[in-house]
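Reviewer 2 asked us to include a model.

Predict the structure of this chain.
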Amino acid sequence: LLYKIGLSILSLSSRETAYSVVSFFSKLKCVFSKRDRELVKANLRAVLPEADDKKISSLTGDVFKNFGRYLADFFFPTEDREGYLKRAVRISGIENIDEALKSGKGCIVLSGHFGNWELAGCALANRGYKLNAVVLPHADPRINNLFIERRRKAGANVAHIGNAKTAVREALRRNESIAILGDRPYGDRGVKIRFFGRTAVFPRGAALFSLRNGSPIVLAFTPRTNAKDNTYTLILEKPFLPKRNGLLEEQLRGIMQRFADRFEYYIRKYPSQWYMFHNVWSERKQA
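Predicted model (structure tokens):
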């Protein structure tokens, strides 16, 4: 119901008005959802151990506000969807996707719950790249359908975690791109890495797909880089092909550690744009 109300508000307002509305509700969420608020604070303290309580509290409020903006930007209705995506998301390093696809074995685009990963995927698909997003379905199928519809309108295919293996394998065989988030493990298996100086568990799916299919990996991060005109920059880093030597667990850990190291850089630069409402350091799952 809240999503439907939000979409109705978006359809009747400008982008600036939508931001004001979501900012109000984000503040309410931050105040009344103690569990989420404390989890965000704990994550920020790990990211910025030198910050005092006042700074952490301020950043926590910004996380909720920016998360609301992320949803507003993703769902913002417009007849000129193509033009909207080109204006809202600037792409840096698009040649790195092209370079990765030269292998003929597809490309793994690895990102995290940061900035506006949803809008970034839509922007790539909108520019003609065959993109397949591996996602965790929402608990409520009606909300799940809202997200799927929005992704597909931009031209992105969707494969749900749990039954994505065949879809991913076929997409890579067609030399298409696979988009996966790598900062929260799902299911029963993950790989231990060092993240902000502590042991965390990240999912191993992206690394496993790359190793098994020989597909290059492109790390991708999409922070809001201009608050004045509300635009994001999709940063696509140079592709790399993991070396297939040593034990499988070591190979998986090496890949995900490389992702974690770069992800740390962007989170430190834009700490209020990491939308992690879970404690990644409390996970006990291991490969």
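The chain has a mean pLDDT of 89. Residues 126 and 252 are 31 Å apart (CA to CA). We have added this to the supplementary material.
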